[in-house]
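Reviewer 2 asked us to include a model.

Predict the structure of this chain.
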Amino acid sequence: MLKNKVLLTGITIMAAIFFAGDITLGQTGSSLPIESAKDMFFDKSRSIAYILNGDSTISAYDFVKKSFVLSRVSLPEVANIKQILASPNGSIIALVYYTQAAGYRVAVYSVPLNNEKGNAIIPGPNYFLGNELIQGTASMAFSSDEKMLFVDYGENTLYIFSTNTSKQERITVGQFPSTIAIDNAGMVLVLNKKSEDLSIVDPFKRVVRATVKLGLNPQNILFNKITNKAYISNTGSDDVYVVDATAAKVLQKIKVGNDPTSLAYDEKDGTVFVANNSSGTLSIISSDFVVRTVELNSAAYFEGAPITLAYLNSRKRLFVLNPWEAKYLVYDVNQSRITKEDKTETFPVKIFASEKSESAFVLHWNANSLFVIDAETFAATHVPDFVTAAGAFFSKPQSVAVDVKTNRIFVSNLGGDYITVVDGSTQKPIAKITVGRSILTIF
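Predicted model (C-alpha cells):
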C-alpha cells in the first residue's frame, strides 16, 4: 500500500509541475500579478515595466509607485502573443501575435494609466503581417512622436503602420532584417543580417534613401543621440562599425573583442559599451573612438543567450547580464572597475535600468516575479515579493525518481544545476542538491 501511495504521489507531483505550470507557496495561480513571464519591455519615461505572461495576459509594474498598475489583463481576440513593445513615453503598446486562422498580426493599444478613464488598455489598429514565418524574424520600433510603428518582417520587408489610423505602407529592404533603430532626424535604420547591410529608410517619403555595407554577421544596432551616429556590432569580423546615417557612410571600423553583440551608451558623454561574448570582455568606446578593454572573466555563446547590457546614467553604472552563467556584474565608470558580481536565478533573459528608481531589474524566463537590484546597495529583491516554489526550487523540470522507503521524490532540472527534493506526504519541495548543469534523467 505504501509503495502504491508514494508512486501515485510522484505522478501527482509531476502532473503539477509539467501540466499545471508552477507550484506556488502561499498564492493561487490566478492571483499572481506575474505568471510564467515570456517577454518584457520597459517604459523609461514613466519607469513602468510591461510584462507578457504565459497566458498572453499583460501586467505593468510602476517602479516609482512600487505597485502594479495592470495585473493579468486579458486582451479580446488576441492570443499566442510573441512580443511586446512600449512607445517612448509608454502611452502605446504594440503586440505581435499569431493565430492559425489569421497568421501573424500586430495589435496596437493605448494605455492611459492613472487618468479619468482608469487603468485600462484601449484597442487601436490591428494589422496583418503575413502567414506562418518561414524565414527571418520580426522586430518593432516606434517613431519618436509615437505616430508610426515600424515592423521588420520575414525575408525583406519593413512595414510602416499608423498608431491611430488604419494606414500602412510596405517597403522592401535588405535580406533578413532583424533590428531597428531611429536616428535624430527620424530616419529608420534597419539592420539586415543576411545581406550584411544597413537600410536607411525615410518614413515620410516611404523610400529607402541609402544602403550601407556592414561587417560580417552584424548583430545589433544602437543609435547614439550624443554623437549622432549609429553603432553596429559585427560578430563575424569582431568589430563595431560607426555609421553616419545622414551621409550614409561608415566613419570608423573599431576592433573589439570576440563576438560583440549587445550595445549601450552614456547619454551624457556618448561613451559606448560593447559586450564581447566569446572573449568575456567589455569594450568601452569614447566619443572620439578611443577603445579600452575591461576583463569580465565571464563568457557566453552569443547565438544562444548573449551577454546583455543596461546602463544607469544617474549612477554611471553598467549592468552586465550573462544568461549562460546566470549572473550579473556591475561596472562602475567613475571607479573604472567591476564593483559587484553575483548570481541571478536560472534563465535570465532581459535586463533594464530604471533611472527614476535607481535600480536594475531582470526578467527570468517563465518566472513569476522580477529580480530587482538596488543600484546603490546592490540589495536584491523580488517584485512581487512573495516566494514561489517554481522560482526557488524548479527550473524546467525534466524527469522524476521516487524513493519508496523515505517517501521522497527527486526531480531533475534541465534549466539548473540541481536536483529538487519533494516530500511525498506534504507534496512540498524541501531541498535542492547541486550536482551539475542541465540534468536530463535521474534513476
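DSSP finds two helices and 36 strands in the chain. The longest helix spans residues 2-18. We have added this to the supplementary material.
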